[in-house]
């Protein structure tokens, strides 16, 4: 327990009234989060501490600890109830912590409080996979056909093509749909933590382990689906252990003496060619053949150009709802450009481009200029760094437009960041992140 105390530090507190409006903050909070009192006082706390959309700050118990994002920093925050007022004290800033300390800390919290989101029911169904091209229709049909079996599925395709979406849709159509869908991003877990995360551990298996032990993702997915995203990044040793689970349908926790039967369906995904990795000795051939029972290759957006505009319209609708904007159409010139672009980041990229455009657009039509920004303004702000703001990669051009939009909003709001964020229709935390990213004053 001493160690847990060591990782906790006071990053300042925010005080709110009974209506959830900020009435003050400590001096260290302003300093650590670089927020001005004018950007804070009187604002709703939900605009300062961003949590997942399903999470409500209302009614949290005294001393409850939760995770949230403040000014772009992921934090753990403790609630102190004081009669009508509430104090939110930031006790951990994740970017200031070693990963192992963070794991130790989250383990020390009561069960299910923070890790609730690690087990989710699949959210997407096949109807929500936008696209009518024969290429995507064929994949949807195959996926729907195998959904009802319990076979292992390997989803391949470039980054951003929708592999996770398909995994969720397959789970949602299977007989396991009422059971958990447990996603694991194999690239995001450090090698040394991998086995304990996937296989779980028994009490006292290693120093820092939870007293009562911990189930791994395989156990959490019991009777449901385990989605192993970016499986190519699975450490070689863990590959052997996973293979044994697949073959024997049993799992043994680290430090354990007995095995438990497992009934899970595995869906794995990779955007790297596993066959090449096998040749390079980085991926086990025997595991590959276990996973390769059924391969679904999701086509890139380049291979199904006719889906580009339906996807763009879909995301315009999506962001209209999310941002409260009223874009009704996409200008024909922008439509031409969208069709011609080759989309290396696939659907994730088109979604991001539309989102950026929708943050900048003025009026009911999304135009090429909404992405690039109006030429007059670019002349006014030479600091965009290039003479021709339309040259460079799409990311650079859009980045320049975004930077210009922020500069203009800040200028129009005379430096009031909250007002600027409102004009841009983005959260103030997101504005702070972008100001830091573009090194703006
Ligand atoms: N056909 C589609 N219709 C609507 N949204 C989609 C579609 N395909 C992908 N998306 C959206 O695009 C984004 C990227 O999709 P997803 O995360 O499933 O891709 P991925 O192939 O798993 O990427 P990676 O290989 O990088 O993990 C998500 O926000 C997803 O909701």
Structure annotation, total helices: 18
The CATH superfamily of the largest domain bears the name P-loop containing nucleotide triphosphate hydrolases
The Rg value, from CA coordinates, equals 24 Å
The shape, in one word, is: globular
Contiguous uncertain segments of 5+ residues? 110-122, 373-390
| Amino-to-carboxy terminus distance | 42 Å
Helix content: 25-40%
Ligands: adenosine-5'-triphosphate
CATH fold assignment of the largest domain: Rossmann fold
Based on DSSP secondary structure assignment, what is the total number of beta strands?
17
What's the level 1 CATH class of the largest domain? Alpha Beta
* Architecture (CATH level 2) name of the largest domain: 3-Layer(aba) Sandwich
Overall pLDDT confidence: 81
The assigned structural class equals alpha/beta
The number of distinct structural domains comes to 3
| Widest β-sheet, arrangement of strands | 2-1-6-5-4-3
Percent of sequence in beta strands: 15-25%
Oligomer, anyone?
single chain
Largest sheet: 6 strands, antiparallel
Protein name: Transcriptional regulator
GO molecular function: ATP binding; sequence-specific DNA binding
Domain Sigma-54 factor interaction: 129-359
InterPro entries: AAA+_ATPase, AAA_lid_NorR, Homeodomain-like_sf, HTH_Fis, P-loop_NTPase, Sigma_54_int, Sigma_54_int_dom_ATP-bd_1
Task: Indicate the topology.
Blueprint: H1 2-7, E1 13-16, E2 22-25, H2 27-33, E3 49-50, E4 65-70, E5 73-82, E6 85-93, H3 99-108, H4 134-147, E7 153-156, H5 163-173, E8 181-185, H6 191-199, E9 200-201, E10 214-215, H7 217-220, E11 225-229, H8 236-248, E12 250-251, E13 260-261, E14 265-270, H9 274-279, H10 285-291, E15 294-297, H11 308-323, E16 329-330, H12 332-340, H13 346-360, E17 365-366, H14 368-372, H15 375-380, H16 394-412, H17 417-424, H18 428-437
Parallel strand pairs: 7-14, 7-15, 8-11, 11-14, 16-17
Antiparallel strand pairs: 1-2, 1-6, 3-4, 4-5, 5-6, 9-10, 12-13
This protein binds adenosine-5'-triphosphate.
């Amino acid at each position: 327990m001493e160690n847990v105390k060591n990782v906790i530090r006071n990053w300042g507190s925010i005080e709110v009234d009974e209506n959830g409006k900020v009435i003050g903050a400590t001096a260290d909070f302003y300093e650590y989060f670089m927020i001005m009192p004018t950007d804070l006082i009187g604002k709703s706390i939900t605009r300062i501490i961003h949590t997942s959309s399903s999470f409500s700050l209302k009614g949290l118990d005294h001393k409850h600890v939760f995770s949230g994002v403040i000014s772009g920093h992921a934090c753990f925050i403790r609630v102190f109830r004081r009669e009508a007022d509430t104090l939110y004290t930031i006790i951990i800033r994740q970017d200031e912590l070693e990963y192992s300390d963070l794991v130790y800390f989250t383990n020390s919290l009561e069960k299910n409080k923070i890790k609730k989101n690690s087990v989710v029911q699949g959210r997407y169904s096949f109807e929500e996979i936008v696209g009518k091209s024969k290429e995507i229709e064929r994949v949807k049909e195959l996926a729907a056909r195998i959904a009802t079996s319990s076979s292992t599925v390997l989803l391949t395709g470039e980054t951003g093509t929708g592999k996770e979406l398909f995994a969720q849709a397959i789970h949602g159509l299977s007989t396991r749909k009422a059971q958990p869908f447990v996603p694991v991003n194999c690239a995001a877990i450090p090698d040394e933590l991998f086995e304990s995360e996937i296989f779980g551990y028994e009490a006292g298996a290693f120093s820092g382990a939870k007293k009562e032990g911990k189930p791994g993702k395989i156990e959490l997915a019991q009777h449901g689906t385990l989605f192993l995203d970016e499986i190519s990044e699975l450490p070689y040793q863990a590959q052997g252990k996973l293979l044994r689970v697949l073959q024997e349908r049993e799992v043994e926790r680290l430090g354990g003496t007995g095995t438990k039967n497992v009934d899970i369906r595995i869906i794995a995904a990779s955007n790297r060619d596993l066959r090449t990795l096998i040749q390079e000795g980085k991926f086990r051939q025997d595991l590959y053949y276990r996973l390769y029972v059924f391969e679904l290759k999701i086509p890139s957006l380049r291979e199904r150009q006719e889906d580009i505009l339906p996807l763009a319209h879909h995301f315009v609708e999506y962001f209209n709802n999310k941002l409260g904007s009223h874009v009704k159409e996409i200008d024909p010139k922008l439509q031409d450009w969208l069709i011609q672009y080759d989309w290396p980041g696939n659907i994730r990229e088109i979604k991001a481009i539309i989102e950026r455009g929708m943050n900048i657009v003025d009026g009911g039509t999304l135009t090429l200029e909404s992405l690039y920004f109006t030429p007059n303004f670019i002349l006014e702000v030479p600091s965009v760094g290039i003479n021709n703001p339309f040259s460079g990669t799409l990311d650079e051009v859009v980045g320049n437009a975004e930077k210009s939009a922020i500069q203009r909003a800040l200028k129009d709001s005379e430096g009031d960041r909250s007002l600027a964020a409102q004009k841009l229709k983005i959260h103030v935390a997101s504005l702070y992140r972008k100001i830091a990213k573009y090194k703006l004053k």
